[in-house]
Amino acid sequence: MTNIEIIPSGTVTSPEGFxxxxxxxxxxxxxxxxxxxxxxxxxAPCEAVAMFTTNRIKAAPVVLSQQRLQSGRATAIVMNSGCxxxxxxxxxxxxxxxxxxxxxxxxxxxxxxxxxxxxxxxGHCLPMKRxxxxxDRIILTRDGGRGxxxxxxxxxxxxxxxxxxVRSAGGEFTIGGVAKGSGMIHPNLATMLCxxxxxxxxxxxxxxxxxxxxxxxxxxxxxxDGDTSTNDMVLVMANGLAQNAIxxxxxxxxxxxxxxxxxxxxxxxxxxxxxxGATKLIEVTVNGALSISDARIAARTVVxxxxxxxxxxxxxxxxxRVVAALGRSGVEVVESKIGLYFGDVCLVRGGSPEPxxxxxxxxxxxxxxxxxxxxxxxGRGSATAWGCDLTEKYVKINSEYLT
Length: 403
Prior knowledge:
CATH topology of the largest domain: L-amino peptidase D-ALA esterase/amidase
Number of strands: 16
Strand content: 25-35%
Largest sheet: 9 strands, mixed
Helix content: 25-40%
Oligomer: single chain
Number of domains: 2
């Protein structure tokens, strides 16, 4: 029997052997006192795998981390916000490597064992003098994950972190994580950073498969604005200090996969909920598609629709926008079989409009979390995607990002 429980105030340093710290280095434009540079370190070398942005233009830290992860090992990651170090040419690669050298020197490990991640404004070089001056002031502690979560925030309004304790027949272990993301969020990794940690003993091959599956049902199922960033990374580091039976495949891997999925979905929903200018979380579930792939495509298309997002913001039960988005998703549908619900309010049944109580529909749309469910009645494919409403504040934030 498997028991999974949320750790109160859990974070990326909740698993055994992980330490983190952060400092205000003055990287964020116009600020000197906000945390913007941090390090996560494991006292034992980790099995490490990551998934990166699908954008053809990849930031220097993405390129460097991809190269170093070919070994499947890492001990630390240094992260900053305020400057993406993207589209910065050879200087960007030099600066990314220098960041890992500085972090490694302070910790006492080799630079090759350090990864790097950056987020912020594209096309600006890192202020390396400030980083070099302040990085030595980072103090790594067992509860430093909370500071790291704040240090990677850009337009985020809240830090995003979680940890779960898992007890199964194969032993006990913990999975933790921090993430950032608020704008430039779209399926297939988008404008987000996420670092996951675990003290579980996990085989590298299984860890790769587990991360791919977890990302597919979480970070690849969120959308805020349809833009995909140059810097996205989801990293998982496993140091094995829990001394559980080593996980290499199912069935012992089921508990690990379940917990990893939960951590990633929690962080993904936190990102969607904190979308720039957002007032509501939108959850779109598609059931009865011909395949899981079709269900995912349909759910992502609906949750990404600006017309749907605007209608949710205005609490307007304009369900026609939902079926229009479904229709343009390209998945197989039969109009006469479609059902549509806002919360538990049925608006369409068997492809025909259903009389509904306006007040009940309005109550669903006025809540902080708006649930939209589509029943296609064609097969067994199901999927859920998350997004947020579209507000005037989103335009304001992104029209003044550099000013």
